[in-house]
Each structure stands twice: as C-alpha cells, then as structure tokens.
Amino acid sequence: MENYKITGKAGEGAHGYVFRGIDLQTGQSVALKKISVNLAHGISKNTLREICALRVLKAKNIVKLIDITNMGSSVVLVMEFLPCSLQDILKKTQLNLAQIKRYAKMMLKGIAFMHRNHIMHRDIKPANLLISPKRQLKIADLGLARIYNEQEKDRQYSHQVATRWYRAPELLYGSRTYTPSVDMWAVGCIIGEMINREPLFPGETDIEQLAIVLNTLGIPTKETWPDLTDLPDYNKISFISSSGKRWGVILPTADNLTIDLMKQIIMYDGKRRLSAQLALEHSLFIVDPLPAKLQNMPDCQDYYNNDTSFASKEFDTVFADFDSQATFN
After folding, report:
1. Reduced to 3 states, what is the DSSP secondary structure of residue 323?
2. Where do the DSSP E strands lie in 72-169?
3. Judging by beta carbons within 10 Å of its beta carbon (0-12, 13-18, 19+), is residue 223 exposed, middle or buried?
4. Which residues on adjacent β-strands are paired with residue 188?
5. Which long-range contacts (CB under 8 A, 24 or more apart) does 324-329 make?
6. CA separation for the pair 130, 143 (Å, rounded)
C-alpha cells in the first residue's frame, strides 16, 4: 500500500468500501476497493469472480483493474477512478434522446464485449454503470459475474442475482438455467428509466416485482413464453389476468424507433430477447438525433461529492475505522 495515498471516500458496496486515492508513482487518481478476507475460508467467491472477470475484460466500456494489493488480511483492488454513476446523473438530470442513445450505446458495447467473452454480469443497474472524467460510461462491480458456456445448457446458476428492479422475469420465477439474456432485460429497464426518469418496474418485494411486470406487459402465454410452465416457481402464485399496457403508455415520450427497440429487449422469453450486438445494429442509433458526442454528455464532476474527511489519515487507520462499523463478506 505504500504506492498509494488516500484522498477521500468514494462510496461503498455490498462487499467493501471504495476510497479515492492517488498512485504516488504516476500521480493518477485511482479507486481503492478494500475487501476483508475471512481467515477461515479465504477470499470470497464474489471477489475471485470480480478479479478474474476484470483481468479478462479489457475494453473501453468496462472499468479497468490496475493493481491488486493487500493490507494485512484484506485485499485491495486498485481500479481507475470514475467519479459518478448513471444513477447519480438520473437523480438530477433529464437526459435528451441523443444523450440516452449515447449512454445506451456505450452500455451495449460493454455488455456485448462481456457476452462475446462468455461472461454474464448478472447485476446490471444504473449504480453499476460508472462515468469517467471523459464522460465515458463503464460497467463496474463484477462480483456476480459468471462464465457462461452455451454447450452446457443444463448448467445451474443461482437465481438470487440482479437487483430487484432490473431482475429478469425468469429469475423471478426461480430459473437456474438462464442465459446472458438476463443482462439484456436489465438494459431494457435502464433505457426505460432514462426515458421516464423513474424505474419501469419498481417492486418492493419479489412478488410485487413480478406483479408489476405482469400488469405492465400482460400475463404471458404459451406463445409469448413457451418455457414458462417449466420454471420452478410457476405454480407457486397466480396473478389476476391482465392484457398489459400499450408501449405508448409505458413510455409516453418515446418515439417509434425507441419503442421498437424496447419491445425486442423487454420480452418474457429470454431466447427471443435481442442480443447486445444486435441491439447495437438497431436503426435507432443511425437516425437523427444521432448519439450525442461525449463533450455534450453530462459532466460527472457536477454530480460527485468527494468526502475528504479521511484524507489526512493513514490507510490502516481509515480501514480500521470502517471495519469497526461493518463486516464485509
């Protein structure tokens, strides 16, 4: 840790606190994610997955892992510093269509790269889409990422993944043999949130989440979702029949091309959902208004509140302070 100096707290996640720091050798701003290690069980699976995924996924729209170091019994991931998230921006800004297209395109490029490398993220949400000082969107927090092999169609995964508002319906029905198309459902939810400036499906519980989806899109049928009756939790709860809402009601300010793209992503049947690569080829991105240039995107510095109250302390003191308040798994 002698190569880095802490300059402030940047945020916190499910598995550790993130601090802003400086690489003393290069002067570069970095993010320092400290993760405590269970001495009896070693490094958690989520941490190992994140490290492995970040080492493989080197792309413009995926956060860069710079270094891995340790401090006592803790692991510290050193990553490029990204001042804010898409979530921060959506809280304060109504994006125009050109800006929505640019963010959607950068998100899809990152996901397409992940999927080409047989990795599904499984927790795509605005808080995990970080924005660089140069206004590039980058996918972060790969703690739930898993390798996907198309040849192993019966391989089972945990269905307790993805943040509820962005969780694909097959996950809500308990599927354990899903595909990277669960990431694309989340993409559709995020595009809809950028348009409406509020979540498409804001459920407070898993049952309410599923009820909101079914009420919005209509009760699925054998034609719209052939594998529905095979899902583990299909018969555990029934819902009042609903024909759903028109997309013009779901996204009242969206144009026809945007709705066309959304209809191909927000689909019950994951096998029919548009892939990230095909979504990038949609006509939406080649008609006016074209995706905004980066200089016309929101400046992340306007949304970043740097907590510098720890800047004068040593790393071990700062981390000890936080370890006394929380336990990281």
Report:
1. helix
2. 74-80, 84-85, 119-120, 129-131, 137-139, 146-147
3. exposed
4. none
5. 326/17, 327/36, 328/15, 328/16, 328/17, 328/34, 328/35, 328/36, 329/15, 329/38, 329/44
6. 15
Whether 299 is catalytic: no
Question: What is the rounded average pLDDT of the residues 22-30?
Answer: 91
For residue 164, count other CB atoms closer than 10 A to its CB.
18
Q: What is the pLDDT of residues 226-236, one digit of tens each?
A: 999 999 999 88
Residues 6+ apart with CB under 8 A from 79: 30, 31, 33, 54, 63, 64, 65, 66, 140
Query: One of 88, 123, 141, 183 is an active-site residue; which one?
Result: 123
**Which pLDDT belongs to residue 323?**
42
Crossing angle for the helix pair 97-116 and 181-196, to the nearest 10 degrees: 170
**Rounded to two decimals, what is the model's pTM?**
0.89
Residue pLDDT, tens place only, 58-75: 999 999 999 998 777 778
254 has pLDDT over 80: yes
d(CA 195, CA 49): 32
pLDDT confidence of 157, banded at 50, 70, 90? Answer: confident
Going by C-alpha positions, the residue among 75, 89, 73 that lies closest to residue 32 is: 75
